[in-house]
Amino acid sequence: EAQVTQNPRYLITVTGKKLTVTCSQNMNHEYMSWYRQDPGLGLRQIYYSMNVEVTDKGDVPEGYKVSRKEKRNFPLILESPSPNQTSLYFCASSFWGGQYTGELFFGEGSRLTVL
Amino acid sequence: EDQVTQSPEALRLQEGESSSLNCSYTVSGLRGLFWYRQDPGKGPEFLFTLYSAGEEKEKERLKATLTKKESFLHITAPKPEDSATYLCAVQKKSSGDKLTFGTGTRLAVRP
Predict the structure, then answer these.
(1) Contact state of B99 with A45 under an 8 Å Cβ cutoff
(2) Is there a smaller number of Cβ atoms within 10 Å at the N or the C end of chain A?
(3) Mean pLDDT value across residues A62-88
(4) For testing contact with chain A, the best of B6, B39, B99, B106 (most A CBs within 10 A)
C-alpha cells in the first residue's frame, strides 16, 4: 500500500529534550516536505527537499533541522524543543512535479506537546 | 501579502442538502489553487487543482470552480461520509513550491 508513515504519532516531551520525528514514504517520491498545523493558522511549511541531499527552508524553519540521506526518509529534528513548537506535524511527499500541481501525499500526522 | 480566507468556518447540512464552500484569495500571479479533504486524525487528501478562471473540476458529489478572486467547492446531495474539513491552498508562479493554506471549512452532514 502506498503511504507516508510518521513516527511517533503522539509525543509529550519537555523543553530542551532533543527529539526526532521520522517520515518514510514507499512511493519512490523525489519531493518531501514538513508542515505544521496550528488552529487559526492553517498548514505552514517548515522544510522541504527536492531530492536526496537537497533541502531548503520553508516559511517557519526556526528551531527545526532536517536531513535527506535516503530518498525514502526525511526526518524532522527538534534539537531543543520549546513550548511554541507544540503542534500537529505532517510529512508530505510527491512525485517530481507534484509539488507544483498540489498532488501531495500526506502522512497521518504527529501530535507533539512540549511542556 | 498572500492571503487565503475560507468561509464559513463550519457548516452543518442535512443529508441531500446541497451547498457551497468558499475560498477567497489575494495572490498576484496565481499558478494554481488546490482543494484538499482532511478527516479527523488524518492528513489532508488531495482533491483538485485549478489553474485558470473559468476552470471546473468534478469528482463524485464535489465540483470545484475558480474565478480571479475566489474558488467554490460545490457539494451536491451530500452524504454523511462527506463530513470532513475542506482546505484550500494557493501557489504563486514566483514562489516555487510554496503553498499558502486557508484554515478550512468543517463540514458536518447529518443523516
Answers:
(1) yes
(2) N
(3) 97
(4) B99
